């Protein structure tokens, strides 16, 4: 079967114009117009708010006090985003796009790139403090990315207001270490050729900012995770930041996709043993032996990941470990029997690459005994964790 060629630019503009006409007549959009459903939803929200495409549009600036307050609230994110925005500006300079970073409401908090100050349309949006939310300026990549929580591409007439029909833009939401949408990243050009591949670029750049934001958190251990067969250490890794007690301080988007998150109240703490089916001290044991060697990470679902455990420096011994592994049998200060037994079991689990069932078979004991012998500790809350 032959692939259908994409429409040429003039045909695409004609299809967009047909879709806008159908929208205004309140009729159903024919599937042949190939307008993405999220664009239709945005158009419908704008119409429901009483807006009309031909009405005059004003780009409002919020108060200086609000701009300062927002900048202070986003200082950590702006610091994490700066290197990524600088690299992004170089990537898009030759196609005459520029980058905007907004807060979760759609207010611009940073501008980067080759912005043509002689063009009033570029000046209108390329300013810190401009409200570019859907409620203020209709369908844009900014409002759509924040509403749909996914990367989007929007070209010229796909914007709701006629006054915005010169813009082409790609947008992607930014998620914080706890998984909430905190900001969004936008790439915009004025009267430029369509570049739908920018949706991938803006999504990758947004993930890079998320990773930088996560790595700014003070942590005792960083766990890089991915599927077996993937190369660990690259931009595609899931990242999980742990404190010295094994509690999860934050994760990036990829980690949340790789590891099912437990149901919990918003803001409730999560321990890594909620996510990984192995004694969590093994992660810290692996993290203090350079060079880092990939670990086998079983999940409670039965699936398996691979990971690299990287201790922060200076590293603090996890307070809940409190174990001493005897280096030489018969040393002058022999470890208690329980500690020696625990050390033997830990070594067996490590030799089994985290597979507790396999370690239990090698030791001739049950899996439950492995967990019981190593011991559990109470942490804040009602559950027990490794």
TrEMBL record:
Q: Which InterPro entries match?
A: GAF-like_dom_sf (IPR029016), Homeodomain-like_sf (IPR009057), HTH_Fis (IPR002197)
- GO MF annotation terms: sequence-specific DNA binding
Gene3D superfamilies membership? 3.30.450.40, Homeodomain-like (1.10.10.60)
Where is the DNA binding HTH domain positioned along the sequence? 337-374
Q: What is this protein called?
A: Regulatory protein, Fis family
Say which species the protein is native to.
Acidovorax soli
